[in-house]
Write a structure and sequence with these properties.
It is a single chain. By secondary structure, this protein is mainly beta. The chain contains 1 helix and 22 strands. It has a domain of about 120 residues. It has a 22-stranded antiparallel beta sheet that branches. Strand 3 and strand 4 form a beta hairpin. The radius of gyration is 24 Å and the shape is globular. About 10% of the residues are buried.
């Protein structure tokens, strides 16, 4: 596995002592094994050079109006990126609305952006925050009505909604949804979560997720043999802190179901977080779990620890799995990862990690290295952002 990636990010604010900004974000990545040929179960090389952001903004701190033009993410749309403009009217400190239009460089389900003058996108957004700048409350509701024209042949109109409500001191209710209005009316993707604080030591949460086959395929493993399907899931979690110590216990139950073949997933895990197990600053976690995962059953034993300091962060992850298939075949996949993020100065830091994974078919060894040089006077990226996401077999 080899990936060579470069990123150039530039942001200039308060140009000529006025409320103007300019942002560049250009990325290049060459992945020797980044193109999945799922039918042949192999990986081919892939290179991508793209402009993630190229935007001019005016009036961001203005109390009445805001204007932006270029390639950028339109706020309050759930991540919609356009090659165009946005005009915002700020009615008050708590409410604003905007109008945007341009070309659509996005293809649903893909991360690469491509210029396409045949795909037009327009929309309006609104943002309401009745308790803005109020301590302990962060209520907001955002809505976006978006029309996408695809290759001059068909239109898609959908409504995106995000909200967070925590008027009560002991609960938080939040959610994100995408509701398609044309060509048919249906909920494309939705996530709802309710968090309840019973006391200073105990809290409960429940979340409901339903995603379409495109997003489900994007989130699945590379060698998942199941066909794409809409997937729905409900998760409950109980977290409690032991009063006599700073240790905390977390128990999670998860149930999911595929729509196309009605296959189900049932999972139960329980873990304990133990601070200062190795050093005064570390946070360690032990987790046990069982899972009935569509076509097989498995038991999981996991250990992880993070040791942060002022200049570096060390992390270790270890997973041991016993998996049994319906034909009674038993395998024991193992995933191990060791990594370090080190900041040599305010301008230079590096991240490196080693991962080893094996099952009955493959042995995989991977090395990750990231070097970042920062110039300018803006806030430094937190060290923890450098940690790579652990892979799966």
């Amino acid at each position: 596995m080899a990936i060579f990636a470069h990123r150039f990010y530039f942001s200039s604010t308060n140009i000529n002592n006025s409320d103007q900004s300019l942002i560049f974000d250009i990325r290049d990545k060459h992945d020797l094994f980044g193109k999945v040929a799922k039918e042949r179960r192999n990986l081919n090389s892939k290179n991508s050079l793209q402009v993630k952001t190229l935007q001019y903004k005016f009036g961001e701190n203005n109390k009445k109006y805001y204007f932006g033009i270029g390639r950028h993410v339109v706020k309050n749309t759930g991540g919609k990126i356009i090659d165009g403009f946005e005009i915002k009217k700020k009615q008050s400190r708590r409410f604003d609305f905007s109008l945007f239009a341009g070309y659509n460089p996005q293809t649903y389900g893909e991360s690469e952006l491509k210029w396409n003058s045949h795909k037009i996108v327009t929309g309006i957004t609104s943002h309401w925050a009745p308790n803005k700048n109020t301590w302990g409350k962060n209520n907001f509701i955002t809505n976006a009505l978006i029309l996408e024209e695809i290759e001059n042949s068909s239109n898609r109109v959908y409504l995106q909604n995000s909200f967070l409500l925590n008027n009560q001191e002991n609960s938080i209710f939040q959610g994100v949804s995408f509701l398609d209005l044309t060509p048919t009316l249906y909920i494309q993707n939705i996530w709802l979560s309710y968090l309840f604080f019973k006391s200073r030591f105990t809290r409960y949460s429940i979340s409901i997720t339903s995603v379409d086959q495109v997003l489900q395929t994007k989130q699945s493993d590379v060698f998942d043999n199941l066909d794409a399907s809409r997937y729905s899931e409900i998760t409950t979690k109980i977290s409690s802190r032991i009063r006599a110590s700073h240790n905390s216990l977390t128990t999670r139950f998860r149930y999911g179901k595929r729509q196309s073949d009605n296959k189900e997933k049932l999972e139960a895990t329980s873990g304990i977080n133990i601070p200062s197990l190795i050093l005064k600053s570390d946070l360690s976690n032990f987790k046990l779990g069982i899972r009935n995962n569509f076509d097989y059953k498995e038991a999981l034993l996991s250990f992880s620890t993070i040791i942060p300091t002022n200049s570096f962060e060390f992390f270790l992850d270890q997973d041991i799995i016993v998996r049994r298939y319906k034909n009674s075949k038993i395998i024991t996949p193992i995933v191990s990862e060791l990594g370090l993020t080190y900041m040599t100065s305010k301008s230079l830091f590096l991240t490196t990690s080693v991962q080893y994974a094996k099952d009955d078919k493959v042995n995989i060894f991977s090395l990750f290295f990231k070097l970042v040089y920062r110039f300018g006077n803006k806030a430094t990226t937190p060290l923890r952002n450098g940690k790579v996401r652990k892979g799966r077999l």
